């Protein structure tokens, strides 16, 4: 399986290709660069000149980042979201920039990134448009956002592996909020201190065994009251990567992408890995 990155000729996509090359080496696999061309027709053997140039530029950025990496590239007919979701079925990881594909500078994450993150058949990394030209952090901690025990296991597995391979610390973030119609009643029945202790115990249970499996990873546990999105964005400012699940506690049946991961696509300044178990 390869890491697959979607490109469109934009600077954001070239930066995503460079990040994808680094991740492919870390995972020990090749890199496949894909240009989805909605104007092409099935069976066409020759790429349009702008498509060939976009593929060549992306491959050049990937090879400059990782000279010994095996890189292949292709153009496929169809809308980017449909092509890339199909590519995700056989991908080790699917990577996209947070805009591009016809997006405009200054806009929040493009529709393609959101749709791909929502419907991909495996994990997706979204590389943000940060800097001029765009770049990505090559140092700093890995930040993992955990929610319920079940969804936290694959997130922690990925986060520990990345932190271990990079030799970076892991910051595990868990937040809680008091919600409901009668907040006064909730507070009287569940004092803030009691809730905080419960959430600390939850995180300890969720992380049981992981530090023993990865003894070389320095771990900081961060538990607090408030919005998970705000907390993760705050801790992502110096992070090399943020790792979250596709859906977490309170996920809506039938929804493909949780509200936290959806909002982080729009706002996190560091690359975002959305972990999804394959069906």
Automatic annotation (TrEMBL):
InterPro entries: Rossmann-like_a/b/a_fold, Universal_stress_UspA, UspA
Highest taxon, organism lineage: Bacteria
SUPFAM superfamilies: Adenine nucleotide alpha hydrolases-like
Stretches assigned to the UspA domain: 2-128, 141-276
Pfam families: Usp
Assigned protein family: Belongs to the universal stress protein A family.
Listed name of the protein: Nucleotide-binding universal stress UspA family protein
Organism: Saccharopolyspora dendranthemae
